[in-house]
Each structure stands twice: as structure tokens, then as C-alpha cells.
Amino acid sequence: MVFVMVGLPARGKSFISLQLTRFLNWMGFEARVFNAGNHRRTTETGVQNASYFDPKSTTAAARRDQIAFEVLDGMLEWMDEGRDRFAVFDATNSTQARRRMVAERLQGTPGLGVIFVESICDDDSVLEANIALKLSKSPDYARMPREEARQDLLRRISHYETVYEPLEEEEMTLAGGVVRISYIKLLNFSSHVVAHNIWGRAAVTVLPYLMALHVGSRPVWLVRLPHAEVTAYSWRKQGKPWPPPREVQFAEQPLSPQGHAFVDTLAAFIARRADGIAVFTCTHRRGLELAERLGGGRVRTSLNPQDRGICFGLTAEEVAECAPDVLADPLHKRFAGGESLADMLQRLVPTLIEVEQEMRPVLVAAPLTPLQALYCYYAGLPVASAVSLQLPMHTLIELQPSGAHFTERRLSMEELCGPAP
Fold it and tell me: In 28, 255, 374, 415, which residue has its Cα 20 to 30 A from 110's Cα atom?
């Protein structure tokens, strides 16, 4: 499937493109952004200030079209090399004529789904945030004084506005007949969304995800459930019978004194950092106790640990003997009587979308396995690597948005006691 971006400059197209591919890669697909601006910067040697985008210059307009279709052809080559791939064609595609040319080129690939995604901003605060993001992240303005860069960008936007044609229920007459296009229109990111002719996987996962996007700067905090009096590991280490008696429920074990001390330290840290937060946790008693200490939270069964079936409670070495096929392909292979990593991701998607749409600081407290999976999303890591990630207990992982990426720092219990930055 191909997503074709549409919109004026500084409307968040590249941000949306990068976030969408992050999400799709996290779900286990292959996804990549093909950006016309990046190709322009590597192939063009002349002046590329606002005058380059003046629609009155037919030479520059023809060159921009050529660059865009070079990127499109490279994208199609990449799509042909694998199966179940997703690509995002990141360019302005601001006129019906350009979109028709793109659709005609894509039509030559049988079975290829195409969705146009238009980003519109008429809210001054959202537009200013997008302009600031573009000025700080775009290589076009890396060596330009701030005010000069801003004025150049505004002139570029003005040039595009003179020819811009918003997406409508366009019917394109292509080689195979009349085609009714599929599109998603995002107004000020998620304040208003229009979906036309959207169905299947895109309607179930991609559309809700796009509706959650925003350019807010709130942090996301990830933390493992704090220490408990009794765990499966400690039970087995003490040589007690395994499997344990039915009345022994590890999910119902309360926080230990060490766990309570960490939660108190965490609560004090958050009180210094934020006026209010959104807390998400699992159904385990430790998670409920932590959420209560922080003023309450949303309980989600999706944040419960991966079901490892007959391998529950085993050490990593024992799992290697019990289920070597799962370790070889953790994304797709299921534990006998349990889940695969892909199964767990499917149930995590709605919670991830809830976290993404939050404008307040967010804390997610969960057992190791779902936290490993969520960390892969924010760190941009292959989700199959989740099983080997080291996420220590009583450590807060702080993820701060920086454009379409996240900066990370890890705070131990001792560091949480220090003054807020």
C-alpha cells in the first residue's frame, strides 16, 4: 500500500510520514518514507530558496515534477522487492494534475492500494508549531539565520497557495477507466478528520492512529511494575513447587517495601514535573497500587504480560530449551498455549493510540514484556528485538518528543530524588 501525502509546506506532512512509518514498522511491516525534498537537496546544485518554488517559473516547475517522479519510481522499485510493504510518498502533490500523474504511475502496479493523505492547518497555533518544527528540522534552513529562514519559508508557502487545490471526491479517468480515489483529510492534525473510501486494514489501524497525532511536547514515561513480595522468579529460586498451587496468584501480589519506596519517590518526582498526568497500567495489583498513589489511572488488560503458555515462569535459558522456535521468530511464533509477539502487539495498538493522543504527560506502568514492545515504538527499534531489551526495575524511562523522534533518558531511583530539571 502507498500513502501519498498532500498539502502546503509546513503542514506537518513529513512529521505525519515519519510517524506513520514508525507505527507500521512497529506492527511488524516494512515501511519507508520516500521524500521528494531529500532527493531535491541531493540532486540539485542551484539556488533552492523560495524563488525555486515560484509557479511562474516553468523550468523550475518541470524540474520539481521530474524530481518527484524519480522518487516515485525508486519507491515502486522498492515495493517490487518485497511483499506486504508500505510506502509513504512525501511531497506536496498540491494540484489535481500532479495527483492524477501520480495515480497513473501507481496504477501500473497490480494490487497496489493507494490512499491520499492531506494535512490542512487553519489554526494559527498549530501552523506556528509546524513552521517552528520545519525551521528547526529541515536541512533547507540549517545554515540560514532564523528570521531570514522564516521569511523564505513564508514566501515558499505563498507560492504554493496560488496553485493549491485541496483534495475533493476526485474521480480520475485513468487507463483502466474512472477511478474513485481514497483519501484521509486531517484538519489541524486530529481536530477534524474526513475519511473517504477507506476500508480494511487502513480503516482499522491507520486511520485511528492518524487521528491521534499531534505536535505537543509532553513527555511519555515508561516504568516497569515495582518490586513485589513474591514473583514467579523468587518462588522458583526458593525451590518451591512448580507449577505453583492454584491459590498462588502472582498477579495479586502487593508491592514490597522496596516497591512502595520507589512509588513514593516516583510520585514526588512527578509532582515536581507536572500539574497533571495520564496514567495507564495493567490489572496486576502492583500496577493498581502504583496508579492509586499517583491519583488514579486507566486500567488496560492490554498491558498485561505476554502469555507464554507452558513456558510461564521459566528463565531465559529454560525458554530456549522449551520453545527454541519462538526465540528464532518471536514476532510470528506462538508459545504453546500462549501468544506470539504479534498477538501482543495487536492488543497493544488501542492503548498505544490512547497514549499518543494524550496532550498531558503520560506514564505507562506495565510488566516487562509489553513495556519492551512499547519501548521499541518510541526508540524506533525493530519490534522483534523487544525480547532482548534490558529495561531495569525501579528506573524511569523518559521519552521526550523531538520532531518526529524521541530523545531518551533513564532515571534511577537516586536520580529521581534530585531536583527537577
Answer: 28
